[in-house]
Design brief:
2 domains, single chain, alpha/beta, 13 helices, binds flavin mononucleotide, TIM Barrel
């Protein structure tokens, strides 16, 4: 890579690619997957400072960090400087390397509490929140938005001079975009994942959801995670349609196995990739 290791304050990242925070998506299992596939830093879903203060299980679990996913950034939201400082301390205690204050969320419930995007309309409070959360900062800039292809991050860095690039929606359906982008940054041709890689990633995602959230919750969450991972594969539409009827993790595994048996046979018969 032609740039020095990118830094956020004292933290040196392996590379400038960041998994953007996405509520409902960037939970621990998905962060682990994206780290394995090359993200230099992964961001959590947003965690409510209020929820933490009241020890609400969901907020505490959103903040759980394991060593394998680090470095990790935890995003907190709230409007009370004291509560936000406590949330930041809790994030650090739980293993966060970076604390990110949400200033952009426009969900009604968050706005009503004066947090998220509402903070942008209340600069005095916003400043108090930032000051309470941290002292002096060295500012790094992350570019973000519409990074979809392996060459997009490099183009954004060259165009804007940003230090980091965050990848959001595209990472959801193609988490290997991180390793492909690293290929481009290193001057290599981006490597397309093979069928076997795509299958392994889908099964890894299922297993990780199951072990983190448990069978019942994971059986629901897989409906939003697995189908998008089949994006771009031939005949993925019938797979997605059939996946709607899948009820358990075991059935989901079987449905993935069957889909890839079909794709392998199709590939062996010399059909062109879709
Ligand atoms: C489903 C979804 C949930 C998101 N949740 C958050 C969030 O909790 N906090 C935040 O700062 N940004 C959130 N974002 C914004 C993303 O972090 C990112 O900035 C945005 O999607 C643009 O990047 P992209 O074009 O690579 O997707 C969310 C975006 C999506 C699509």
């Amino acid at each position: 890579m032609k740039h020095a290791l990118p830094r956020i304050g004292a933290l040196a990242l392996e590379n400038p690619l960041i998994l953007a925070p996405m509520a409902g998506i960037t939970h621990q299992p998905f962060r682990l997957l994206c780290r394995r596939l090359g993200a230099g830093l992964v961001c959590s879903e947003m965690v409510s400072a209020n929820g933490l203060a009241h020890a609400i299980g969901r907020s505490t679990r959103l903040m759980a960090v394991v060593p394998a996913e680090r470095p990790v950034s935890i995003q907190i939201f709230g409007s009370d400087p004291k509560g936000m400082a406590m949330a930041a301390a809790a994030a650090q205690a739980s293993g966060a390397d970076v604390v990110d204050i949400n200033f952009g969320c426009s969900v009604k419930k968050v706005l009503k509490g004066g947090a998220g995007a509402a903070l942008m309309g209340d600069p005095v409070r916003a400043e108090a929140v930032i000051r309470a959360v941290r002292g002096a900062v060295s500012i790094s800039v992350a570019g973000n938005g519409d990074v979809i292809l392996p060459g997009d991050a490099l183009a954004m860095m060259e165009r804007t001079g940003c230090d980091f690039v965050m990848i959001g929606r595209a990472a959801r359906r193609a988490p290997w975009l991180f390793s492909q982008t690293l290929d481009v940054l290193a001057g290599r041709e981006p490597v397309e994942p093979l069928l076997a890689d795509r299958k392994a990633i889908m099964l890894e995602c299922l297993d990780a959801l199951g072990s983190f959230f448990g069978e019942a919750a994971a059986s629901l969450m897989m409906k939003s995670h697995l189908p998008v991972l089949s994006w771009g594969l031939p005949e993925s539409r019938p797979f997605r349609e059939a996946f709607v009827r899948v009820r358990s993790l075991e059935e989901a595994r079987e449905s993935v196995e069957e889909f890839f048996r079909f794709l392998k046979a199709r590939e062996a018969s010399g059909e062109p990739p879709a």
